Amino acid sequence: MSVRRKSRELALQYLYQVDQRGEDALDIDSMREHFEVSKKAAPYAKELVSGIQANWDSINSLIEDHAKNWRLSRMAVIDRNLLRIAAFELVHKQDIPVSVVLNEVIEIAKRFSTDDAASFINGILDSICRRVRNEKVTVESN
Prior knowledge:
By secondary structure, this protein is mostly helical. It has helices at residues 3-21, 28-35, 42-54, 56-66, 77-92, 98-112, 117-132.
């Protein structure tokens, strides 16, 4: 598993804690120790979390604008936080190819969410990609 995937998973775990508690969770370094994640994963996880928090309202609005008939509050906690990670990377990390962002988040969804999560997330992210990067994307399936 790549360091970036571990970073995204650590960011997901952090955002999940924030979502459940309604406040900031432990810091990333403490969570890294608790979840036994590589020390190398922490810097990018911190970058993701701080970027998402700094752009919280705009990221949430972007997701809701593209989630037909879905409010964030109705989405599964894992799914909405994976969408936040991917939306942040699509908008603010233009150096990361769209296919990488989507494939990574879909693989994490397969590991941590329900069977239907991958197609749900992919549908929303495809719409977001067409808007923010002017691209239609397809996710590789294994």
